[in-house]
Amino acid sequence: MEKSREFLKKIGMPIGDAYSLPSSEKRFRDGAQYRFEVPGIQGPGSMKALLEETERLGLTIHRVTQTKGIMMLTDEEILKMVDLASQYQVELVLAVGPRATTDTSASVNTPEGQRMGYRLRGQEQIVRAMEEIRRAVALGCHSFLVYDEGSLWVFNEMRKAGEIPESCKFKISAHAGHGNPCSGKVLEMIGADSMNPVRDIQMQMLASLRQGIDIPIDVHTENPASTGGFIRHYEVPEMIRVASPIYLKTGGSVAKNHSWDTSDADARQRAKQVSLVKRMIDTYYPEAIASAKGSIK
Predict the structure, then answer these.
(1) Whole-number Å distance between alpha carbons of 219 and 20
(2) Organism's domain of life (predicted)?
């Protein structure tokens, strides 16, 4: 194994999982180590309920992510969500709509086909994904959740060519199934601005992933029942220490699945979950630095 480890070192990659759990010295542009992201907010009603509740609780969140797809929202709904994001100083992330689970193939619903994740089948789906981005940009959204590596590369080429604003950002979903530094490096090279590794990534793997890439890592602090339902609140302080800059994806355990249609009551419960994670940080890693409200770049 030594020759393989030496070659990985030669090309700038970790030689294995980082069992020593070294502290990360990398930070967000504002010098912070962590930010909060609340996923699964599917429309303006639940988004408003979430933001009002976090404000009432004195919490700061930095990202709100919709996961059902831009194509499932009306123009009016997108405009309302963009307005709410501006009003409450959070980053709004909209998901690209075309995906395997809504394609005309049943493959993803089979035990073998599930391995494809949410990736796209056929070039027409790439074209439709491009149209999703163009539509959302025209309505004022500049951040997107991406499930397919090929579409990520195309979106980045669009950004470089001036087809969409340079300010557009792309985060790769856990549904793409990545969990090692080499995969993370590829995603970073083709335009990812942050990446969400597999939900059950272990701490030594997370530390190694941080050694291999510079972009923020989005980590689930808890999960819907459909992806295990496990809650990692006690691990959060160490996640921050070894993997910063990190987005703490919190509130998922409220949902039964990734595309759960979050109600207003669910949204308020997601805010409570953020407060529980914040308590863990304040208790076990109080010196950790969070981004201030409105720090979303």
Answers:
(1) 20
(2) Bacteria
Sign of CA dihedral 283, 289, 293, 297: negative
- Mapping DSSP onto H, E and C, the string for 102-166 reads HCCCCHHHCCCHHHHCCCCCCHHHHHHHHHHHHHHHHCCCCEEEECCHHHHHHHHHHHHHCCCCC
CA 104 to chain centroid? 26
**169 within 8 A of 216, measured Cβ to Cβ:** no
Q: Mark 53-91 as b/e (b = at least 16 C-beta within 10 Å).
A: bbeeeebbbbbbbbbbbbbbbeeebbebbbebbeebebb
Determine the Cα–Cα distance for residues 12 and 24; give it in Å rounded to an integer.
16
Place of tokens 């089979």: 110
- Distance between CA 90 and CA 270 in Å, rounded? 16
| Beta carbons within 10 angstroms of residue 235's beta carbon | 15
Fold (CATH) for 21-110+118-284: TIM Barrel (3.20.20)
The SS3 call for residue 292 is coil
Task: Report the pLDDT value the prediction gives residue 99, as an integer from 0 to 100.
Answer: 86
pLDDT in tens, 183-228: 999 999 999 999 999 999 999 999 999 999 999 999 999 998 888 8
With a threshold of 0.90, does the pTM exceed it?
yes
Of all helices (H) and strands (E), which one includes residue 185?
helix 181-189
Where residue 22 falls (left for φ over 0; alpha for ψ -120 to 50; beta otherwise) is beta
Q: What is residue 288's DSSP assignment? A: P
- Summarised one tens digit per residue, pLDDT across range 98-141 is 988 888 888 888 888 777 888 999 999 999 999 999 999 999 99
